[in-house]
Every structure is written in structure tokens, then in C-alpha cells.
Specification:
alpha+beta
Length: 232
């Protein structure tokens, strides 16, 4: 097996309603849509991990590999390479470094999508993958995609059995939760809600403004989908 084809924490994320918006949006909505796509394209990049030690302690800097195509996003962390390049020891748990960063990234994606009326859905797994220079290939990619398209159903990020069977990953109650149907999902709602308004003297006012804007978008989309017979 080539060294670059290794076990990755892999996610496939999709923006719900993108097709309808691309077909039916007015000029203002198209501009917002294009701005979102440009922002997504700027996220693309190779995986990197470094370790910095100074008088304040040890800091690890980890950036996932990200590829985008239209409204689809693939995010991955190569686990062996991460441990090696970030200088992790046997006592360091890679899941600790991966799941929190992934959760925050999802929260930011969900917030950007919600601003123009989209929700996100996806799947996340651990498996073999090649992800470099814009090329994504391997069973982990296939499984993450199938989780998004066949299993998730709702605007949520569903975790695979490969993750659920690893206690160090799934037992993190601040990142994963068990949904009503028994599937484990990534809690991106917490960072979405608490990171949108900027902390400071005007936090309450910004939170109220964000809430009113968000609920207005949700009501608008619900009314459209109801009238169009597309409640699914």
C-alpha cells in the first residue's frame, strides 16, 4: 500500500437546497451563492501539522486536507501522518486533536450556509483514503458519501460504525451525540450558536440580531418549500 494511502478521518458534507437555489434564485441570491462558493474554494488545501514548543508549553497546529466541488466538501485528517508530523507521543490521542477542530470547522460552515438559507448534511468515517493535490480516492470517501446521501436524511452529520466502535472517538460527549434513531452524529450546533455573535459588550444585541435574521430565513424557506410541495 502506498505511504500516502492511509487511514483518514474523513467527512463528506453537502449543502441542502443548493440545486433549487441555483435554478430559481434571483440576482441577489445568485450573488450570495457565488460568494459562498468562492469562500468554499478558499478552504481548499493540503493537510499540514506542526508542533511548537516554547516557554508557554507545547502547541500543535493541524490543518485538514480539504477539497471542494460546487457545494460538496471533503475534509480529511490522515491519522498516522498527523501523529508523525505533529510530534504526538504514545500518550497523545489523535482523536482529541481531530474531533474538536472538525466540530469547529463544521460550525463555521453551517453558519455561512445558514446566512443565505442553506442547511448542511454529511457523513463521517475512518478508513483508507488518498487525499492530495485535489485528488480524493478510497473506501473512506465512498462510505462518507453514502452516509450523507442514504443515511443522514436530516441536516446532520452522521458517524459511521468505524467511528462508533472506537470508544476514544465516540465517547466525547461534547462532540458526538446519539440521535433519536440510535445514530451517532457530530454536534455542530453548539459552535454554530455560540460562535456566530462575537463576544463583547454588544454580545446580546448581536445574538438577538443573528437569531432574528436566521429565523426569518428559515420561515421564508419553509413557506417556499411548503407551497412548492417539497417539504422533504
Amino acid at each position: 500500500m502506498p505511504a500516502s494511502y492511509e487511514e483518514h478521518f474523513t467527512a463528506f458534507v453537502d449543502f441542502l437546497g443548493f440545486r433549487e437555489a441555483a435554478q430559481q434564485s434571483d440576482e441577489t441570491q445568485r450573488a450570495e451563492l457565488l460568494q459562498l462558493l468562492r469562500s468554499l474554494s478558499l478552504l481548499q488545501g493540503e493537510f499540514s501539522a506542526t508542533k511548537n514548543v516554547d516557554e508557554n508549553g507545547t502547541t500543535h497546529y493541524i490543518k485538514p486536507a480539504i477539497s471542494t466541488f460546487s457545494d460538496h466538501i471533503v475534509i480529511s485528517f490522515p491519522l498516522s501522518t498527523l501523529s508523525l508530523e505533529a510530534g504526538l507521543t504514545e500518550d497523545d490521542d489523535p482523536s482529541f486533536f481531530v474531533v474538536y477542530q472538525f466540530q469547529q470547522l463544521l460550525g463555521n460552515l453551517a453558519a455561512a450556509a445558514l446566512k443565505i438559507g442553506f442547511l448542511i448534511r454529511g457523513g463521517v468515517t475512518i478508513g483508507n483514503l488518498y487525499h492530495s493535490q485535489g485528488v480524493v480516492f478510497g473506501p473512506a470517501m465512498v462510505e462518507a458519501y453514502e452516509l450523507e446521501s442514504r443515511t443522514a436524511v436530516y441536516p446532520r452529520i452522521v458517524a459511521s460504525h468505524a467511528i462508533m466502535s472506537r470508544p476514544k472517538w465516540i465517547n466525547n460527549s461534547l462532540v458526538f451525540f446519539k440521535d433519536d434513531d440510535g445514530l451517532y452524529c457530530v454536534d455542530y450546533y453548539r459552535p454554530l450558536l455560540f460562535r456566530m455573535p462575537q463576544p463583547g459588550a454588544t454580545y446580546n444585541a448581536e445574538l438577538k440580531s443573528w437569531f432574528l435574521d436566521s429565523t426569518s430565513i428559515i420561515h421564508k424557506n419553509m413557506n417556499y418549500l411548503r407551497s412548492a410541495g417539497k417539504l422533504n
